[in-house]
Amino acid sequence: MIVPTLRAAILIALVAPVALVVAAAAPGAWIIAPALGGAVLVLVLADALMAGRLRDIALTVPRDVEVGAKTELLAHAQFGAGQRSRVDAAVALDPRLAPGGRATFSLLHAELDWHGTFAFTPSRRGTGLASRLWLRWAGPLGLGARQHTRALDRAVRVWPNIGEVRSPALQAFLKDAQFGLIARRIRGEGTQFEALTEYQPGMDRRRIDWKSSARHVHLYAKEFETERNNQIVFAFDCGQTMCEPLAGMPRIDRAVSAALATAYVALKGGDRVALFGFAARPVVSTPFVMDSRDFHRLQSAAAGLDYHAQEPNFTLALATLAGRLQRRSLIVVFSDFTDPTSAELMIESIGRLVSRHVVLFVTMADEELEDIAVADPADMQALAMSVTADSLLRQRALVTRRLKQLGVDVVEAPYSQIGTRLIDAYLAIKRAGVIG
Length: 436
Fold this sequence. Notes:
This protein is about 35% helix and about 30% strand. With about 425 residues, the protein is α/β, with parallel strands linked by helices. The longest helix is centred in the C-terminal third of the chain and has 26 residues, at about 380-405.
């Protein structure tokens, strides 16, 4: 297909007034107007023919990407004889892959081929399609271009982001800290008695075993082993509030990333991990994973946590979860709230879990709401927004305070810190030995 370029359209727009002036000044010379138009048309056709034919076009689309992680697609084109001033490509993509569902980019000349890349950042999990490719290359004058269209059926699977799991900081922690890559008993902390050792200066005197010390006429201290084989359940609220974007990515996706990083640490520490997702009803429930080599199962299950534009049913979801747990577990609940009614139902449901399980509530601080609350009131509208934001923040503080009074550990932090804060909270609970 041969099409005119923007430069050709501008040239025609410039020629039209000239032809009009000539026709008005010398009516007998009207033939000049269509002659100029025909000349431009000939230039467009000749320029497009000089651009040469397309030999081959290849589009490399990644099959698997992670939400929020920047990635690229690559276009590679080969042409026959001719000269080209510009080569452009466009790809129809799923809106979760690129804003507006369209990727447009230019190809650069490299030796005999033309190459171009388009960087995109997936905004939601799921499977997106690259459905169609357009390629347009212009001749040396930039007046005429050829266009090629090709149907595509390339599926791009968007997985939960596990960048924190691969981070050098976490890997170094797993190698050097108490949860090493080599499974071993962890002495010195926890609640399970491990062995007696000679008391050394600097040890906690409360660990001295006075009976054994008297029997051996030498000071001995108790060593404890950190508990293992605990059950950890990550429960995700997949309702409307958690699906709202936070810095360009839904809250639920940021929660999943933090949970998977903590789950990886827990598996390395010898604990068992399961995922549970709910909205109006439970939607995902996995069996417990016991080995870090099966971590991919958790990632696959987390990919199935869909986005639901409905209010979550905490009563049904948490009652269902409690009925499936046969022993005391650590339940990590990821949620958020916007009104006092839903918060009250959430508090009541979580309160029923505290008697049998250890509950950790995780929520992300609303930095935009905090900025509005402290902003200078430049006008009445800004003042009203500031008062409303301050009222909502007070409600959030009241809800978290009530959860703490019930015995629930609460982690509230900006989204960029929620992963590390959650790992710290999990390790503190594990060291205290209150799960098993």
